[in-house]
Amino acid sequence: MLANLILVCRACHDTVHSRRAEIGEPGGFIVPSWADPLEVPVAYHRRGMVRLTSAGGVEGLRSE
């Protein structure tokens, strides 16, 4: 599923996975394996919190 992927550089990938205790889970950086990646907001460089789409893109969160 493309919604379970997000492009990050190697340094950011290593940082997120090595600092899970500090960052927390989900914390905006990791979608837990039990969660639906279409429903869990993630932090996205320069766009803030977004949701990943089934087509492999991102969409901004709507204000409610």
List the helices and strands and how they pair.
Elements: H1 10-18, H2 20-23, E1 42-44, E2 48-52, E3 58-60
Antiparallel strand pairs: 1-2, 2-3
Characterise this structure.
This protein has one domain (2-60). The termini are far apart. The mean pLDDT is 78. The longest helix has 9 residues, at 10-18. It contains two helices and three strands. A hairpin with a 5-residue loop joins β2 (48-52) and β3 (58-60). The chain has a three-stranded antiparallel sheet, with no helix packed on it. The chain is globular and about 30 Å long. The chain is of the alpha+beta class and 64 residues long.
- What's the end-to-end separation, in Å? 28 Å
- What is the oligomeric state here? single chain
Q: Whole-number radius of gyration?
A: 12 Å
Order of helices and strands: HHEEE
Number of strands: 3
Going across the biggest sheet, name each strand in turn.
Answer: 1-2-3
Strand count, sense and barrel status of the largest sheet are: 3 strands, antiparallel
**Count of discrete alpha- or pi-helical segments spanning 4 or more residues:** 2
Indicate the structural class: alpha+beta
Low-pLDDT runs:
none
Helical content band: 10-25%
Q: Strand share of the residues? A: 15-25%
Mean pLDDT: 78
Overall domain count: 1
> How would you sum up the global shape?
globular
Structural features:
alpha+beta, 64 residues, single chain, 17% strand, 3 strands, 3-stranded antiparallel sheet
Task: Kindly summarize this structure in a few lines.
This protein has 64 residues and is α+β, with helices and mostly antiparallel strands.
